[in-house]
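Example 284.
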Amino acid sequence: MLRVLFHKDVEAAPLLSKVSDYTKTAEMLKLPFWIFTEHSDPIGVVITGKEPVRLLAPMGTRLAIVNLVQKNWSGDLLKEFASQTVKLALEQEAAYMTVELLAEEEAAIDSFAEAGFTVLADSFMMSLRLDQEFTFLHTLEFNQVRKEEMANWIQSARKCLSGSKDVVMERILANIGDLPRNLMDMYYSLEKFYFVNRGEQEIGVLNYNPQAGMISNIGVDVTERGQGYGRQIMLFGLKQLQTANCEQAKLRVHVENQPAIRLYESLGFKVSKRRKLLIYETGT
Ligand SMILES: CC(C)(COP(=O)(O)OP(=O)(O)OC[C@H]1O[C@@H](n2cnc3c(N)ncnc32)[C@H](O)[C@@H]1OP(=O)(O)O)[C@@H](O)C(=O)NCCC(=O)NCCS
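Predicted structure in complex with coenzyme A:
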């Protein structure tokens, strides 16, 4: 039988250190969370809050984030946990709830699916060691985006990322323009954003996170694809990460995005993990 403890309950205190890897977002954003336990072992954590947190819905939308702390529970317990998270989300009037799992965590995925969750994203995490030379042709111009140009960059990104099958990124880009100023400034300070041009012609977009060693987005305008530009943009991005002293480059790509996967594999990227993001939309 599962017990649910609010993070401020006295009985939750001894569990806080055991779940601290899963409550960083909650602590950073000062959000409430609940710990689900079985015989005083934490099974999972549910954090609730309002957008902007995941940016999958307009600002102010209530949401919940589920984290599975223990992965090796029996199917019955996982099912009970999944259905109780739905109950909590409804009580908290969350419009949606997400849980991210590795593709091999099949029992957990099945339990959440049975509770009404559906797969929103199915992605490969890929990585490449940056211990080689990256040279790119200088036919493209890489213009770093100024803070006041971010709204234009977001519009270009929505256009250039079309066809990526990445519904999560589509939803983020649809909502990110409404971020409060301080959060947009924070996003701008963490990532490097580029417009990619050829003369007057807009070819594509790129953004990467030098601290995380992450190529966050690359996109080529649909009318300019298949001419080698995507490869040049990737080579530029990898060179930038190398210059920022990253040992490896990481990225996330939808498992069915064949053009992008072929490009990344041809550059030497290998799949490290497959992750599924499941969502439960309450319709409130
Ligand atoms: C992925 C993307 C950036 C590739 O850009 P591009 O300019 O068309 O790619 P290039 O012409 O440089 O091709 C580079 C390699 O990509 C692969 N590729 C490109 N288009 C492909 C297609 N339609 N089918 C299969 N592989 C393809 C090939 O391996 C190609 O190398 P090759 O020409 O030697 O065979 C582009 O398709 C795009 O913007 N897609 C939508 C946004 C997106 O999916 N971004 C990645 C999100 S993770």
